[in-house]
Write a structure and sequence with these properties.
The protein is mainly α. 73% of the residues lie in helices and 0% in strands. It is built from eight helices and no strands. The longest helix is centred in the N-terminal third of the chain and has 21 residues.
Length: 172
């Protein structure tokens, strides 16, 4: 079945097809929320809320890009998270062992710090473009911006990241 058919079936009351959508997109939405928030527990909650909001509004869904639609919901929820919590991102507190795991975790935290230094709209544009591979026009449609604004956000975000990494001595 196609996504369109899943949606039609869900709109007809066949909720079992929600599982198909969740199975297909849950990991992508969760990773996006992790990168946005820097907090695995908050990312889990926001991912759950993303799918709950989709379920509540599925009868109004008309988009052609389901993944983009879900990412838009997630991005809006992440913005709400940051508006509600003006505190710094909290790193995952799992126990670490072994130098490779520690080095990897330090690299992730450094990336989170770098991304956290960006404005929300720049971080979102960079993640959607470079991490998820969306085209400029797709990001523009998802965020309600025009393509030139998205290009500018990506360029400015990239420049800010480079400056931040230079300042922190992270560029080799």
């Amino acid at each position: 079945m196609t996504e369109k058919q899943w949606i039609r079936e869900i709109q007809r009351g066949r909720g079992e097809y929600l599982n198909c959508i969740a199975e297909k997109y849950y990991d992508d939405i969760y990773r996006f929320c992790c990168y946005q928030t820097g907090n695995t527990e908050e990312a889990y909650d926001i991912t759950q809320e993303t799918f709950l909001r989709f379920i509540r509004n599925v009868e109004h869904y008309q988009s052609r890009n389901l993944k983009g639609y879900l990412l838009t919901i997630a991005a809006n929820l992440c913005r709400d998270y940051f508006r509600g919590r003006k505190t710094e991102s909290i790193a995952d507190t799992e126990t670490l062992s072994g130098s490779n795991v520690i080095a990897e975790k330090e690299a992730q935290l450094t990336l989170m710090d770098c991304l956290g230094s960006l404005a929300d709209f720049q971080r979102e544009a960079l993640l959607l473009h470079y991490y998820y591979g969306f085209k400029i026009r797709e990001i523009a449609a998802m965020t309600g911006s025009n393509p030139s604004t998205v290009k500018s956000r990506i360029r400015q975000g990239t420049e800010k990241l480079k400056r931040y990494m230079d300042k922190e001595g992270l560029n080799g």
